[in-house]
Amino acid sequence: MSRSAHPAGPRHADVLTEGHYTAPPADLNALDPKVWAHTVTRNEDGVVSVGGIDVATLAEEFGTPAYFMDEADFRSRARSWRTAFGHDADVFYAGKAFLSRAVVRWLHEEGLNLDVCSGGELTTALSAGMPADRIAFHGNNKSTEEITKAVESGVGRIVLDSFQEIVRVAHIAQSLGKRQRVQIRVTVGVEAHTHEFIATAHEDQKFGIALADGQAAEAVRRALALDGLEVVGIHSHIGSQIFDMAGFEVAARRVVALLASVRDEHGVELPEIDLGGGLGIAYTSEDDPREPHEIAKALNEIVTRECEAAKLRTPRISVEPGRAIVGPTAFTLYEVGTIKPLDGLRTYVSVDGGMSDNIRTALYDAEYSVALVSRASDAEPMLVRVVGKHCESGDIVVRDAFLPADLAPGDLIAVPATGAYCRSMASNYNHALRPPVVAVNDGEARVIVRRETEEDLLRLDIG
Ligand code: LLP
Q1: Do 282 and 430 belong together in one domain?
Q2: Does 309 share its domain with 219?
Q3: How many domains does the chain fold into?
Q4: If you count Cβ atoms within 10 Å of the first and of the last residue's Cβ in the chain, which end, N or C, has fewer?
Q5: Does any ligand 1 atom lie closer than 6 A to the CB of residue 274?
Q6: Residue 307 is a catalytic residue
Q7: Domain containing 206: what range?
Q8: Helices 119-127 and 101-109, interaxial angle, to 10°?
Q9: What confidence tens digit (pLDDT) does each residue in 139-171 have?
Q10: CATH code of 433's domain
Q11: Contact 381 CB / ligand 1 (< 6 Å)
Q12: Do residues 20 and 399 lie in contact, with contact meaning Cβ atoms separated by under 8 Å?
């Protein structure tokens, strides 16, 4: 997905038909700051630490596999989005990337809002004290219970995703004696350059209402006519793990054009537009993500320019980054188990987790980096595939990477940039116990989501 085309390297090139790798890095002990959380560093003794605590200590205390999240890094990324967009805009962190009550509190303290897309996420957000009016509720098939809970709790906006939902939400709001603030999600017809499963602005998919054939204008018409709804704006989300700003710019232009046509038809200037999330992060050194201030500048400029041209008041902009805030802040720590060299091919390194804690490699062919973190090594680079312990040959964590050839069972290796869509998409496949998330900050480590236990499994299995 974020992959650049990698020419086959000089070693084993003939057998790497489905691999994507570059030549081994010059220094296997180096930790590229692009892919590792801010406070991650390799100490003088060769052991890697985060938030001032070394991984050997962390593994001893919390076990492996485990996700370690750099709280200071999370807060600073959240803050830089907030600062980049300023007071005339809102940043809604997309909770689907990773949500826990601690994270909700950090976001609240850093002045961000929250996008949720299920009753479970809404409950988590409210229970951690996020004010309801700072929550946006999403989803293409919200249940009656979810809509009712969202309206009753007073969420700041519900993002309407279909004609049926316009009526459904209006009806529920009215029956509760409320007028619900809503945005209408449109598909702007942009082909985002990302994996098909996470591109969302082309028309042939389940989200939103198409701009192209006048459907979106019709949705606004219908929503404006309903007493239970206060239509505050238009929403567009073009996809995820995107590096190129061009798609966002086209989306912004088309959304502003809709605002202008709404003004012309109804005499109403909708006050908000939301341009969604989707900004890419570096999973490997090959990726070059945009900074929040560049993104804010580009989006503000295009919206301001288009609004001036259409003689519209500039609406309040909001964005919904998830991955770009939480992704780079965590790594997964694994213990190396079986090491299996396959002659002339590569070495399979099995770890104590796998597709149950990171499904992204199997699902999207995602690329990751990996490093030996419990010690430094001067050994030669060895081409490896890091695999899990599940009963499936597609159980791959890192498809192609280099680790030192003296790697041994018991070593700790870490996969960076696993803060987003790893714990949140984790499963119990093979009755694996989902790993904990441990927040590390300034010499202190604190479990924010505990490890699952066998009792947890049996508690659900009541047969
Ligand atoms: N807003 C909306 C309406 C979304 O649907 C999403 C992501 C976001 C914001 C946040 O996107 P982000 O900034 O995190 O890219 N499981 C996939 C990603 C699916 C994204 C779904 N929607 C993955 O692991 O890559």
Answers
A1: no
A2: yes
A3: 2
A4: C
A5: no
A6: no
A7: 138-321
A8: 60
A9: 999 999 999 999 999 999 999 999 999 999 999
A10: 2.40.37.10
A11: no
A12: yes
CA 239 to centroid of ligand 1, rounded, Å? 7
Does the pLDDT of residue 9 top 60, yes or no?
no
pLDDT grade, residue 14 (50/70/90)? very low
Q: Where does residue 105 rank: exposed (0-12), middle (13-18), buried (19+ CB within 10 A)?
A: middle
| Percentage of residues of the chain with pLDDT beyond 70 | 93
pLDDT for 229: 98
User: In this predicted structure, what is the pLDDT of residue 198?
Assistant: 59
What is the residue whose two structure tokens read 């007493």?
227
161 lines ligand 1 (CB under 6 A): no
- The pTM of this model reads 0.94
Q: Are residues 313 and 332 in the same domain?
A: no
Q: What value, to the nearest 5°, has the Cα angle with vertex 439 and ends 438 and 440?
A: 115
- pLDDT tens-digit profile of 248-259? 999 999 999 999
Cα of 34 from ligand 1 centre, angstroms? 21
User: What's the confidence (pLDDT) of residue 23?
Assistant: 83
Residue 254 lies in a domain: yes
- What CATH number is attached to the domain comprising 184? 3.20.20.10
440 is a domain residue: yes
Question: Does residue 198's CB lie within 6 angstroms of at least one atom of ligand 1?
Answer: yes
Residues 151 and 279 placed together within one structural domain of the fold: yes
Tell which phi-psi region holds residue 363, choosing left (phi > 0), alpha (psi between -120 and 50) or beta: alpha
Q: CA-CA distance, 112 to 106, in Å (whole number)?
A: 9
Residue 308 has pLDDT above 50, yes or no: yes
CB 66 within 8 A of CB 392: no
| Distance between Cα 322 and ligand 1 center (Å) | 7
Same domain, 314 and 336: no
- The answer to whether residue 418 is domain-embedded is yes
Q: How far is Cα 28 from Cα 369, in angstroms, rounded to an integer?
A: 11
Structure tokens given for 257: 């054009």
Tell me, yes or no, whether 130 lies in a domain: no
pLDDT at position 199 is 65
Place of tokens 């604190």: 446
Residues 339 and 299 in one domain: no
Check whether 5 has a pLDDT greater than 50: no
| Whether residue 294 is found in the same domain as residue 370 | no
Q: Given the CA of residue 280, which atom of ligand 1 is nearest to it?
A: 15
Give the Å distance between the CA of 115 and the centre of ligand 1: 11
- Examine the fold and report which residue of 321, 343, 371 is the final residue of a domain before the chain moves on: 321
- Which residue shows structure tokens 């041994």? 408
Q: Is 318 in the pocket of ligand 1 (CB under 6 A)?
A: no
